[in-house]
Write a structure and sequence with these properties.
This protein is mainly alpha-helical. The protein contains five helices and two strands; from the N terminus they run αββαααα. The chain is globular.
Length: 167
């Protein structure tokens, strides 16, 4: 594995470990994110920022990679690390939601599916980027990751419609 790839792998691993630590901290109420910033709670701001980043940056990066092939590696790193940070924000929100008191516990139906889709997307992305299982062909990784992205986008739409009471 080239040095650059090793550094990226360890940086991605560090972001995932930080995500897990933050989720545990929120779950154990060591870190409280329930305070309001403007009209909504901090945890909701985090999920909005993370979701908007993924929803808008991914298609833009895909288009830019085709138009600017010389910038492919820079765009790939932006995609990997930007989405991992967005995943951290969404994970912290998810941890805060599942640890709410019984009296104000949310309906997690589409949220659980959405988070599972995002975990699947991150797992397939990490596996694809760092070729975790070398026997799997790159085309198979690409198919799994792209399919996971489609599932995520569809689930986001359903989650929003459910949250608005349309579904």
């Amino acid at each position: 594995m080239p040095i650059k790839k090793e550094k990226d792998f360890w940086a991605a691993s560090a972001i995932i470990i930080i995500t897990i630590i933050l989720m545990i901290s929120v779950s154990l109420h060591w870190l409280r994110l329930g305070f309001l910033i403007g009209p909504i709670r901090l945890s909701h701001w985090l999920v909005l920022i993370g979701t908007f980043y993924v929803v808008f940056s991914v298609p833009i990066i895909v288009l830019l990679k085709k138009r600017l092939p010389t910038k492919r590696w820079i765009l790939l790193r932006l995609h990997v690390f930007g989405n991992l940070i967005a995943f951290t924000f969404v994970s912290v929100h998810f941890a805060s939601q599942v640890n709410r008191p019984t009296a104000s516990f949310p309906n997690l139906g589409t949220g659980v599916v959405l988070y599972a889709a995002m975990v699947l997307l991150v797992a397939t992305g990490i596996s694809q980027r760092f070729q975790i299982i070398s026997r799997i062909r790159p085309q198979t990784y690409r198919f799994l990751h792209t399919s996971s992205a489609v599932v995520l986008y569809l689930t986001i739409v359903v989650h929003i419609l459910h949250g608005l009471g349309i579904l």
